[in-house]
Amino acid sequence: MNQAIRHSWVAAVAMFALLFGAISFVQVVGADDLKTNPLNQRAILQNYCNDRGAIIVGGTPVAESAETNSETCKFQRTYPQPELYAGITGYFSKNYGATGLEQAMGAELAGNSDQLFLDRVGQLFLGNQPKGASVELTIDPQIQQLAYSLIPDGQRGSIVVTNPKTGAILAMASKPSYNPNLAATQDAAAESANMNELVKVPGINLNQNVSGPTGELLAPGSVFKLVDTAAALASGKYNKDSVLPNPAEMPFDGIQYKLPNYAGGNCYTKDTAGFAFALQQSCNTPFASIALDLGRDAIAAQYKKFGFGEDVGGQLKLGHAQGNGFPDNLDAPGLAQSAIGQKDVRVTPLQVNMMTNAIANGGVQMAPSLVKTLRAPDLRVIDEPQPAQLRTSTSPEIAKQITEWMTSVVTDGIAKGAAVPGVQVAGKTGTAELGNGTNNSWFTGFAPADNPKVSVTIVVEGVDIYAGAKLTSPNAKKIFEAVLNK
Amino acid sequence: MSQASNTPKPRRNVELVLLVLALAVGIGANMLVGVDQEKAFDSDFWFQSSLLAVAALVFHGVLRFRAKYADPVILPIVVALNGLGLAMIHRLDAPGEDTGNNQLRWTLIAMAVAMAVVFFLKDHRILRRFTFISLAASALLLILPLVPGISAGEILGARVWIRLGPMTFQPGEVAKITLAIFFAGYLSSNRDLILLAGRKIGPLQFPRFKDMGPMITAWLVSIGVLIFQRDLGSSVLFFGLFIVMIYVATSRISWVVIGLALLLGGGFVAAQVFSHVQQRVYGWLNAFSPDVYENGSRQVIEGLFGMANGGLVGTGLGQGRPDLVPFANSDMIIASLGEELGLIGLFAVVLFYLLLFTRGFRAALGTRDAFGKMLACGLSFAIALQCFVVIGGVTRLIPLTGLTTPFLAAGGSSLLANWIIVGLLLLISHAARGPVDTTPLPPAGAAAANGIDTPTEAVKQA
Known about the structure:
The structure holds 2 protein chains of 2 kinds. By secondary structure, chain A is of the alpha+beta class. In chain A, 39% of the residues lie in helices and 18% in strands. Chain A has a 6-stranded mixed sheet. A 5-stranded antiparallel sheet of chain A has the order 8-7-19-18-17, sandwiched between helices. A two-stranded antiparallel ribbon of chain A has the order 4-5. Chain B has a two-stranded antiparallel ribbon. A two-stranded antiparallel ribbon of chain B has the order 3-4. In chain B, helix 7 (171-196) runs parallel beside helix 9 and helix 12 (290-310) crosses helix 13 (333-366). At the A-B interface, helix 1, helix 2, helix 3 and helix 7 of A face helix 2, helix 9, helix 12, helix 13 and helix 14 of B.
């Protein structure tokens, strides 16, 4: 009888061995398959409904998780100033995923990043509700507000304001914007209806994780002449006193097309020009002739050195477009047009700002950064990204020389609107023709010229010359004043 | 046997230490689930914790007084499991729900009944006098849910509930005890007959057809439960219980072969004939197909997702989402524990069960009377089989059935029945580990009181 009892026990233990195997399979071996099963809503719910970290600007959250009354989903993502920061925060949606920093900093905000490992262990033992880290941005709320308000409603455009010495982004605004709260609602039907409406709004590309300033690739127009200038000086074939040909039209062999000079300024007054005059009046033919003289590769090399078509470094976090290298296989008219930022040259507003910063910062380009600190739920700083050099774009001497000329563009040239009384401002405008009678109007510059504290890049899209002139340099002045008077 | 060479030791102090540890597990878990809701140390917590602690310590006192040689591990294991169950049920209570306190109430009632069993029964052998009364009681308990007026009707596809005033009760839970008593009593009296008569076919000796009576009875009961109550789990449990007990009584593997053949045959026919069995099996095999998910397998699949989410170390108590699983505090409480305590925690829980039934089998080995051996073995195996059916169902090892997880799941009938089993196992282990009681059992069942198959051990010990 005892033998039979022992056998029964063995049978019972055998059943339990199967249980141990089954549990191991479910919880460890096959767990990943279960987690990725399409029927499994847990990952989304867990992320979506947990107390996610806030995105903070100047001490105030611009994205935060608020407690709800719902039993199944205890937290709701809200954006207190939705349109103003939509391009930076992006949205965090239950069914449509995340964009912007919500996506890029997703692991930190959800509390899953490695830096929070010890906090998670603590939660395990203390039984606290899991909380994510908060992300504090380099953005200055007043400047952001100003920049956003300087783009008229209904006007497409972007403004980037940075510190050239650190790469810290002080403001990054664009219109049109949208309300990310519409994408973050817990009501699935409302969420889907809202998203169907949002995708119809022209100019906000919800599906590509990029916003205007970092994501939109635009023809740079005359701001590109800074590339030509740097390439010319770097080649050794030109110096500050070089005299450049400045015909009203540049002819090409065998074709009818002639590259015209900029009609609005005073270019027509001279047949030859120094760099200062050519930049002040933004004449086209001097820079086209430089490009034809140096060749495509020299321009392409300088283009690359300024960071166009290149990596922006790991500090930006935000999704961004990189663009391509300088166009290849160009005929002479193509190269001439490309050298004045037309044809197929496409860059983002942020990249133009980075070029400006390299000139402002003695030739050294800093990595643009958006995250000031990463804080654990107890507000302890767990990460504080330091300013990082991204690349050397040009020599200090060339940078200094270009700064000098850019300063004269504001004092004596067509960017007079950007002048700030008592402060030396360096700047360059651009007008890229879109072929339909409208232009992309640019301003990029920094101040004070001798000790740069702020750089501003503005682009407004699809405007005529006059609207463009009104919305660029004068607005840059307002931003320079606001930052420098702080 | 080891204790034969030593003077019997009560080991009650060991039990007290283990009991304190067990209470720390249950109460600590209850505290952790409260931290999340910022009510860690409210009056409810102290009230619940102290009641559980007092009840456990009183039980300990009863053992010191009435069954001082009882196995010192059984009570702490059960207290730890029950405490963990209470904590998880409390954790899953939505605001306004009071399943936690209800479970505590039933825990206290069940412990009181188990203490009464130990206190008043004193000797498990007395139960042998109730062999046929137990059979009648089993029949009654199994038929009750089908009687109009008393039946609580079909709940979640099974007719296993009765209504007693405001409460519902699952008599089948208690029936497994009465059935075990009947089988133990009947088999210990008739095992010689069953053993000696029979025809040998090959290596297996088969019983005479007329000795197959109880086997047929058990089979009919199981199939009846399956057909009329639609309760696949209980059906398997009752039949498994019977097979083990008849195997222990006869030591003949042939009974197991016949039993399994009957079980598989009955199961196969049932699967062909009854749609609810078909659905169960189809839902089990195709659980992940979306339309099956919508119409039946959602419960088990959500449970699996929860356990996968828990992974190796779990999310921590109060931090997972076991509330996404239907019946998270009853049928699926294993998945809830798996999610929040992880593989490690769930292994610990399953090891508790393994330890518990092992101590039961140990009592069966140690006790000297055949009735006690069979009863302890049957009850222990019933616990093991019930865990297997439940946990196997939750992990999709086998189709999910409606059995409860002993001591953990929310539900009064299950707690009551399982605590009575604990009381019985404690009594049997007291007899097994204590000094040999040579005084015959007064009147009634005296003749069969002496161990039938273990004279050599009795001699050694004497």
